[in-house]
C-alpha cells in the first residue's frame, strides 16, 4: 500500500543519492525496459507525428507531404470537443479536490483504528472493472431511480437545468452525469497523494496556529494548505491528464452534446479510418496537455515530480 | 452547532466514502437481479441464475480468460524488466540518468487515447496485424513505468549500511544481494506487480486500439455488452473481483501482523 501511494505521488523516499559507478552494469540492467520504451513509446510518437503530416488514403497508402493544413482542419472542425474536454477535465479535477481533501484529512487524522480499512476501501473499487462501475452509474442515475426522484422532488433538477448542466428533467445523458462519473472514477488518484502528505503533517502546528489566535479559516489557508501543496499538485495531475483523454464517461453517461476529444480520436482512427486527422488530433491533445501541465507545475513551484 | 463544526470533516468524509462505495454496492445487488428484458438497469426479481451459470453469457468467460492471461504475462514481463531498471536507476550514477527518468515518467503522463493511437500507427506502418501480440506489447508498455517507479522508491530508501554489514560478515556481493537486499526490496516488487496486473486487467482504451476485430478482452466484452444489453453475469464478475481484492488485502494484512508479532517475540527472547 505504501509503495502504491508512493507510485501515485511519484516521489522517492528521501534517501541516499545513488552512490556507485557500475561501469556497464546499470546499462545492462536498463537495456530491456529502455528498449521497450524507445521502440514502443518514442518511435510510435514519431510515427504519430509523421502520420499527421501525410496525405493519401487507406487503399492507396500514405506519403509524407508535410501537410500542416491537416492541423488547421482538425482544429477548425473539432475545437468544441477540445474545449469541452479541457473544461470537463478541469471541473472534474476541481471536484475531486473538493471531495478528496476532506476525505483524505478524515482518514489521516480522524479515522482512528479504521484508517487502514478506509484506505483499502478507497483503493478496492479499482479491482472491479471501471466500465462495470461506470455502468452502475447508469443504474443509479436512471430516470425511474431514487436519485432522480430525490432531485426532482427537491427541485434540484430545475436548478441543474437552469445552469445548463442538464437539458431536461433527467440526470442521465448530461454534462452533470459525465462530470459526476469523471469525479467518481478519478477520486482515488486525488485521495491517495493527499493522504500521504496530510498524514505526515504535524498536528501540533494546528495547536500552534490556535495559540497565535488563528481561527479555523486562517489555520487552513495559512498552515495546512501550503504544506499540502505537493499532494495537491500530484493529485490534480493524476486526475487531469487521464480525465482529459477519457471518453468512457462521456460515452456511457453523456449524450451527443457531451462528446469529448477522445471519442473523436477513437472514431477517426477505428471507424472513419482517416488516419492523418486522427493522428493530428492525438498530437494536439498531447501537446495541449504538456503545455498546460508544464505551466501549472511551474506556477505551483514544485518541479520535483519527475 | 459546535459539535457540527468539529465533526463536519468526518461527516463530509463519510459522505464521500459513500460516493466511492455506492457503485460497487449497486453492482453487487444487481448481480442477484432477474432483469425484465436485455438491459440490467431496473430491479425486477431476486435470482441466483447468474451466480449459478456464470459462463452462460456467450463469450464472456473466454474474454475473461484472455484478460487474465494477458494480465499475468504482461505484469510478469513488466515486473522483471521494471525491477532491473529500478535497480539501475536507484543505485547507480551514470550518464543519461535524468533523461532515463524522464522517459520513464512520460508514458504515465500520456493520455491513454494518445498512447493507444500512436502504437496503432506504428503497428500499421510496420504491417503488424492487431491481436494478442499487439495487446501484450501495449500492456507491457503502459505498466512498466509504474513498476519502475514503485520499485525504485523502495530501492532508494534502502540503508546502504546493511549491505556493508553483510560484506563485513564475509558475504560475497551475490550473497549480500540475495540474502539482504532482495528480501528488503521484495514488498516493493510485489506491489509493483500487483499494480501492473490491475492496470492491465482493467484497461479498455489502449487495448481497444490494438486488439483488432476478433480478439476480445474482458473490458472490451463489457463495452460491447453495454451497447447491446448487459448480461447479469458481468455483475457477478465485478462482485467477485471486488470482494476477492478485499480478501487478498485482508489476508496480506493478517500475514503482516503475524510476521510482526513473530519478530517481536524473537526480540523478546
What topology emerges from the helices and strands here?
The complex is a heterodimer of chains A (306) and B (269).
Chain A: H1 2-9, H2 25-52, E1 54-57, E2 61-64, H3 69-110, H4 115-123, H5 130-140, H6 146-153, H7 156-162, H8 175-200, H9 204-211, H10 216-245, H11 248-253, H12 261-272, H13 275-300
Antiparallel strand pairs in A: 1-2
Helix pairs in contact in A: 1-8, 2-13, 3-8, 3-10, 3-13, 8-10, 9-10, 10-13, 12-13
Chain B: H1 2-30, H2 49-52, H3 60-91, H4 97-108, H5 112-126, H6 132-156, H7 160-168, H8 173-202, H9 205-210, H10 218-228, H11 233-268
Helix pairs in contact in B: 1-11, 3-6, 3-8, 3-10, 4-6, 6-8, 7-8
Q: Helices and strands of chain B: which structural class?
A: mainly alpha
Average of per-residue pLDDT values of chain A? 85
Q: What is the number of helical segments of chain A per DSSP (H or I, 4+ residues)?
A: 13
Indicate the overall shape of chain B: globular
The CATH topology name of chain A reads: MetI-like fold
Taking pLDDT < 50 over at least 5 consecutive residues as the criterion, the unreliable ranges of chain A are 1-16
Record the strand order, biggest sheet of chain A. 1-2
CATH topology of the largest domain in chain B: MetI-like fold
Count interface residues per chain for the largest interface: A-B, 101 and 107 residues
Please count the helical segments of chain B.
11
Key descriptive features of the protein:
heterodimer, A: 306 residues, mainly alpha, 2 strands, 3% strand, disordered N terminus, B: mainly alpha, globular
Written overview of the protein:
By secondary structure, chain A is mostly helical. Chain A has one domain: MetI-like fold (Orthogonal Bundle), CATH 1.10.3720. Chain A is 72% helix and 3% strand. Chain A contains 13 helices and two strands, in the order ααββααααααααααα. Chain A has a two-stranded antiparallel ribbon. In chain A, helix 1 (2-9) crosses helix 8 (175-200), helix 2 (25-52) crosses helix 13 and helix 12 packs antiparallel against helix 13. By secondary structure, chain B is mostly helical. Chain B folds into two domains: 1-50 and 231-269, no CATH class; 57-230, Orthogonal Bundle (MetI-like fold), CATH 1.10.3720. Chain B is built from eleven helices and no strands. Chain B is globular and about 75 Å long. Chains A and B meet through helix 1, helix 2, helix 3, helix 4 and helix 5 of A and helix 1, helix 3, helix 4, helix 5 and helix 6 of B.
Amino acid at each position: 500500500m505504501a509503495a502504491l501511494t508512493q507510485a501515485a505521488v511519484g516521489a522517492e523516499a528521501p534517501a541516499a543519492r545513488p552512490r556507485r559507478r557500475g561501469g556497464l552494469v546499470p546499462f545492462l540492467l536498463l537495456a530491456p525496459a529502455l528498449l521497450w520504451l524507445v521502440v514502443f513509446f518514442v518511435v510510435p510518437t514519431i510515427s504519430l507525428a509523421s502520420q499527421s503530416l501525410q496525405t493519401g488514403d487507406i487503399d492507396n497508402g500514405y506519403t509524407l507531404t508535410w501537410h500542416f493544413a491537416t492541423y488547421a482542419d482538425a482544429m477548425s472542425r473539432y475545437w468544441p470537443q477540445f474545449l469541452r474536454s479541457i473544461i470537463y477535465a478541469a471541473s472534474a479535477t476541481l471536484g475531486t479536490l473538493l471531495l478528496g481533501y476532506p476525505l483524505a484529512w478524515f482518514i489521516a487524522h480522524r479515522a482512528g483504528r479504521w484508517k487502514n480499512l478506509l484506505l483499502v476501501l478507497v483503493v478496492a473499487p479499482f479491482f472491479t472493472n471501471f466500465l462495470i462501475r461506470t455502468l452502475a452509474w447508469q443504474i443509479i442515475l436512471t430516470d425511474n431511480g431514487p436519485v432522480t426522484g430525490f432531485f426532482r422532488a427537491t427541485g434540484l433538477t430545475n436548478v441543474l437545468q437552469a445552469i445548463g448542466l442538464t437539458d431536461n428533467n433527467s440526470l442521465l445523458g448530461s454534462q452533470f452525469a459525465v462530470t459526476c462519473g469523471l469525479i467518481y472514477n478519478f477520486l482515488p488518484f486525488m485521495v491517495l497523494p493527499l493522504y500521504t502528505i496530510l498524514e505526515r503533517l504535524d498536528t501540533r502546528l494546528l495547536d500552534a496556529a490556535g495559540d497565535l489566535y488563528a481561527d479555523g479559516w486562517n489555520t487552513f489557508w495559512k498552515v495546512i494548505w501550503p504544506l499540502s501543496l505537493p499532494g495537491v499538485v500530484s493529485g490534480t495531475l493524476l486526475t487531469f491528464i487521464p480525465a482529459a483523454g477519457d471518453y468512457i464517461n462521456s460515452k456511457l453517461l453523456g449524450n451527443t452534446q457531451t462528446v469529448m476529444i477522445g471519442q473523436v480520436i477513437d472514431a477517426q482512427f477505428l471507424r472513419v479510418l482517416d488516419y492523418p486527422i486522427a493522428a493530428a488530433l492525438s498530437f494536439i491533445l498531447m501537446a495541449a496537455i504538456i503545455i498546460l501541465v508544464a505551466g501549472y507545475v511551474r506556477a505551483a513551484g514544485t518541479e520535483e515530480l519527475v | 452547532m459546535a459539535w457540527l463544526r468539529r465533526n463536519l470533516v468526518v461527516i463530509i468524509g463519510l459522505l464521500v466514502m459513500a460516493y466511492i462505495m455506492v457503485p460497487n454496492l449497486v453492482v453487487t445487488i444487481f448481480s442477484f437481479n432477474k432483469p425484465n428484458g436485455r438491459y440490467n438497469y431496473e430491479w425486477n426479481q431476486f435470482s441466483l441464475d447468474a451466480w449459478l451459470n456464470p459462463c452462460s453469457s456467450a463469450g464472456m468467460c473466454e474474454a475473461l480468460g484472455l484478460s487474465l492471461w494477458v494480465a499475468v504475462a504482461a505484469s510478469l514481463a513488466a515486473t522483471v524488466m521494471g525491477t532491473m531498471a529500478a535497480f539501475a536507476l536507484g543505485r547507480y550514477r551514470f550518464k543519461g540518468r535524468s533523461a532515463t527518468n524522464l522517459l520513464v515518467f512520460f508514458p504515465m503522463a500520456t493520455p491513454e487515447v494518445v498512447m493507444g493511437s500512436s502504437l496503432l500507427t506504428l503497428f500499421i506502418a510496420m504491417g503488424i496485424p492487431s491481436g494478442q501480440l499487439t495487446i501484450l506489447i501495449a500492456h507491457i508498455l503502459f505498466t512498466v513505468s509504474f513498476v519502475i517507479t514503485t520499485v525504485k522508491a523502495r530501492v532508494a530508501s534502502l540503508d546502504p549500511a546493511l549491505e556493508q554489514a553483510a560484506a563485513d560478515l564475509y558475504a560475497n556481493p551475490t550473497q549480500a544481494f540475495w540474502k539482504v537486499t532482495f528480501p528488503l526490496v521484495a514488498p516493493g516488487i510485489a506491489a509493483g506487480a500487483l499494480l501492473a496486473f490491475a492496470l492491465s486487467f482493467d484497461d479498455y482504451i489502449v487495448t481497444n486500439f490494438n486488439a483488432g476485430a476478433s480478439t476480445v478482452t474482458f473490458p472490451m466484452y463489457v463495452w460491447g455488452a453495454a451497447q447491446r444489453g448487459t448480461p447479469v453475469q458481468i455483475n457477478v464478475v465485478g462482485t467477485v473481483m471486488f470482494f476477492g481484492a478485499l480478501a487478498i488485502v485482508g489476508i496480506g494484512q493478517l500475514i503482516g501482523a503475524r510476521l510482526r508479532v513473530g519478530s517481536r517475540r524473537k526480540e523478546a527472547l
